[in-house]
Design goal:
Layout: H1 3-69, H2 74-91, E1 103-110, E2 114-126, E3 137-150, E4 154-156, E5 161-164, E6 184-187, E7 203-210, H3 220-227, E8 233-235, E9 240-242, H4 249-256, E10 261-268, E11 274-286, E12 292-297, E13 307-309, E14 316-318, E15 322-326
Parallel strand pairs: 4-13, 5-10
Antiparallel strand pairs: 1-2, 2-3, 3-15, 4-14, 5-7, 6-12, 7-9, 8-13, 10-11, 11-12
Helix pairs in contact: 1-2, 3-4
Length: 328
């Protein structure tokens, strides 16, 4: 074989090898750029997720706070929680726009003593490098849940007697003062539509029921059981219903056995809406001719929504501590 032919074959072989190296190099560069792009886009997506999580946490806490601070039935509290959470999300740039892939879903639920607010945020992350590989966006989703609750406000041996808020604040007596407290006289409202005490001089019986907009008409036997401490363990909403107006002589007889004593009693407005609870010193009961009770208040109104518990020893009124916390 001639030397020139050998040289041509050698040069051709080297050219082929060089071409293969270039192809491998290009493929490797593309792969490296792709991996770097995924890392950069992934880091950016992680940063977006962290921002979303912060907003979701704030929105959930805002919703739980609104739930706790809103009075009314559960539906009203839940609506306030949803509105507050959505407002915080919107203020931070997360407004519900499903067509753009941005969703802000808020769910508020109620239990006996707590409200739970869950916020779900989803926003697409717009990729730079990954878009070249057919992935222009990634959905980034987060969830935050906050619970608003309180250590249960609890009253033991609460008397099933309603008083009107107009009895405050002038009737509060300082039992530690050297001057004896002056007892007030409270009478029942007239029969008919005036079952709820209408001023600071009236009272009525109740069975600690949750009216929720419906009539709450108990009976004398149920009230007498409560006076005698028979198994009441209920949580009150914002409405508490009175017993239908009437003399109920047997109730006065049962109540007379409690004299003298200091007991938690529910306080309502003219429509029967819960205002709170207060301590009442029961000093006298007259159920024959006058049908009145006598006594005076020894504490201001507080602790709306108490749990009535007749199982505990002695009359107590404990106000709980409000708690708002993220659970995830």
């Amino acid at each position: 074989m001639k030397e020139s032919q050998i040289m041509r074959r050698t040069l051709f072989g080297k050219s082929a090898e060089a071409g293969q190296v270039i192809v491998i190099f290009v493929v490797a560069i593309v792969a490296i750029i792709g991996m770097v792009g995924l890392v950069l886009d992934g880091g950016s997506a992680f940063s977006q997720r962290r921002d979303e999580q912060n907003v979701a946490d704030l929105a959930a806490v805002a919703g739980a706070t609104a739930y706790l601070n809103t009075t009314g039935p559960s539906s009203t509290k839940e609506a306030a929680a949803v509105g507050a959470a959505q407002a915080i999300a919107s203020a931070n740039g997360y407004t519900h726009e499903p067509t753009a892939g941005l969703t802000v879903d808020v769910l508020a639920t109620s239990t006996t003593l707590a409200g739970t607010v869950r916020v779900d945020l989803t926003k697409p992350h717009r990729n730079n490098f990954a878009a070249v590989m057919g992935m222009p966006t990634w959905p980034v989703s987060v969830t935050a849940t906050a619970v608003s609750s309180s250590n249960p406000n609890r009253a033991t041996e609460a008397l099933p007697i309603l008083f009107n808020a107009e009895a405050f604040p002038g009737a509060i007596c300082d039992i530690t003062a050297p001057t004896p407290c002056s007892e007030e006289v409270y009478q029942m409202p007239g029969a008919g539509n005036e079952d709820v005490p209408q001023d600071g001089t009236q009272f009525n019986w109740t069975i600690f029921c949750q009216a929720s907009g419906n009539a709450c008409n108990g009976n004398s036997e149920g009230v007498r059981d409560l006076i005698e401490g028979a198994g009441a363990d209920v949580s009150l909403d914002d409405d508490i219903g009175p017993l239908n107006a009437g003399a109920h002589t047997t109730l006065f007889n049962a109540l007379e056995l409690k004299v003298p004593g200091t007991f938690p009693v529910p306080i309502v407005d003219d429509d029967g809406n819960m205002v709170g609870f207060a301590y009442f010193m029961l000093t006298g009961v007259e159920g024959t001719s006058e049908k009145v009770i006598r006594g005076y208040f020894v504490s201001p109104v507080n602790a709306e929504g108490l749990t009535i518990d007749e199982s505990g020893p002695g009359a107590t009124l404990e106000t709980g501590v409000n708690i708002i916390k993220l659970t995830n």
